[in-house]
């Protein structure tokens, strides 16, 4: 492939990555505490969309903080995994093989 062809392919791949990132804003990840007292929803781009807290958790600030940390971390981990999988699929499928170029799309 010539240099101009590779540059065109890179621009096309970059656009697909941007399109995938926009789409991931619409992919929702739900997580809840083991007992269901706290529920969170994030996008696959790790933006918090909603948090639902049972009234019983409002009585104990420390417990609520612990619930938030654990549940949000689980949700962020899931969302990040989905995000990475989707972006990896785009770059592996469409990216021309140029050493070191994969670092540009992270």
Low-pLDDT parts are none
Order the strands across the largest sheet as they lie in space: 1-2-3
Q: In angstroms, what is the radius of gyration?
A: 19 Å
Mean pLDDT: 86
Structural class: alpha+beta
Strand content: 15-25%
User: What's the N-to-C terminus distance?
Assistant: 24 Å
The string of secondary-structure elements, in order, is HEEEH
SS element count, helices: 2
Q: What is the share of helical residues?
A: 40-55%
| Largest sheet composition | 3 strands, antiparallel
Explain the overall architecture.
The protein is of the alpha+beta class and about 110 residues long. The chain is built from two helices and three strands. A three-stranded antiparallel beta sheet has the order 1-2-3, with helices on one face. The longest helix is centred in the last third of the chain and has 34 residues, at about 60-95. The mean pLDDT is about 85.
Key descriptive features of the protein:
106 residues, alpha+beta, 2 helices
Q: Strands, helices and their partners?
A:
Blueprint: H1 3-24, E1 28-32, E2 38-43, E3 48-53, H2 61-94
Antiparallel strand pairs: 1-2, 2-3
Offer a quick outline of the entry.
With about 110 residues, this protein is of the alpha+beta class. Helices cover about 55% and strands about 15% of the residues.
């Amino acid at each position: 492939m010539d240099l101009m062809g590779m540059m065109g392919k890179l621009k096309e791949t970059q656009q697909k990555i941007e399109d995938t990132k926009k789409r991931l804003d619409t992919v929702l990840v739900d997580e809840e505490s083991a007992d269901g007292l706290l529920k969170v929803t994030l996008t696959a781009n790790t933006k918090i969309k909603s948090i639902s807290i049972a009234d019983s958790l409002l009585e104990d600030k420390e417990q609520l903080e612990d619930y938030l940390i654990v549940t949000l971390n689980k949700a962020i981990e899931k969302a990040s995994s989905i995000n990475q999988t989707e972006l990896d699929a785009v770059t592996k499928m469409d990216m021309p093989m140029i050493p070191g170029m994969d670092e540009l799309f992270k």
